[in-house]
């Protein structure tokens, strides 16, 4: 579609008129990071601002204490701006979620105000989704029908570059433990069953398997328990593994192979294995091409220098589950002028800078332009539907 430059400028100017409110909130959340499902300060700040901006706010939402749903307008179409606001343990907002939640509010308010001036029909929703970093807030919300009546959804995520959503991998997290038998490693090793050997054999099996994995798949793990002293054969050992693939069906195949590796390790060591899921599994992300194109065009007009790339994403997000339920995108905006790693101390610092705040406001305007076009332009909604295959 052809984005209207004057509309984008007006949306950005509208957001800039309340920039002190938005940047102050993003900064406050950055200074007080909270882990998933514990985001009381962030949820209170976000919902308080939404109520002040004329939204009807419901929190807790769908049984989640730090989730919320804020609404302005009425009727269809209904467009949802998705907020995240949880932090990482030890390093705070090293994924920049303090910016995501505030950007969603800024975008939602700008669209709602613009619709009001036009006397246009349509519903704007800002949905607060806690616990993206492992707890799967969006998955839990979906199970409780949180997207009922929503026609499309999007969010923006900070990165070291501005670009469209190129998808993400489905993710399953498995904890593997082995029960063996302790014995003196020097005096009576023949009486022991080494659980640590079993975990190490799982790693050996995984490393051998990698040669046959497609480039798009990922598997990585860590040992969490492996014994107490070298002269005691470990009777218990445990590791955690993440399995990823952009194809949900292929992830089923990966999990079957991984479970066979665990069984083999148990047979070779005489130990007893146990496998359990940790956290919530995520589906792959299915970006909508029409929404992607609109966001790219808007960021280009805002001078954000978006990159054209088809390099697939290798991370994972619970927005993947949202994107299978309704047309949606999870694009990115740059908060630095150099490449830095996500989930790092450097990224956490970048998420609190003045540059990041300015970029957040621009990204919110690009998101607002995309949502506004969806609500007001029937032709664009048709394109979104046709490309959502």
DSSP helical segment count? 12
Beta-strand segment tally:
12
The major sheet is characterized as:
6 strands, mixed
Mean pLDDT: 96
Helix percentage: 40-55%
Adjacency order of strands in the biggest sheet? 1-2-4-3-5-11
- Helix/sheet category: alpha/beta
Poorly predicted ranges: none
Order of secondary-structure elements: HHHEEEHEHEEEHEEHEHHEEHHH
Structural shape: elongated
- Estimated radius of gyration: 23 Å
Protein described:
The chain has 389 residues and is of the alpha/beta class. Helices cover 42% and strands 17% of the residues. The chain contains twelve helices and twelve strands. The protein has a six-stranded mixed beta sheet, sandwiched between helices. Strand 3 (78-83), helix 4 (97-118) and strand 4 (122-128) form a beta-alpha-beta unit. The protein starts with a helix and ends with a helix.
Element layout with pairings:
Elements: H1 5-16, H2 19-31, H3 40-52, E1 56-58, E2 68-74, E3 78-83, H4 97-118, E4 122-128, H5 137-143, E5 152-154, E6 157-159, E7 170-179, H6 195-209, E8 218-225, E9 236-245, H7 248-269, E10 272-277, H8 289-301, H9 319-325, E11 328-329, E12 332-334, H10 345-350, H11 354-376, H12 378-387
Parallel strand pairs: 3-4, 3-5, 5-11, 6-12
Antiparallel strand pairs: 1-2, 2-4, 7-9, 7-10, 8-9
Helix pairs in contact: 1-4, 1-11, 2-3, 2-4, 3-4, 4-11, 6-7, 8-11, 11-12
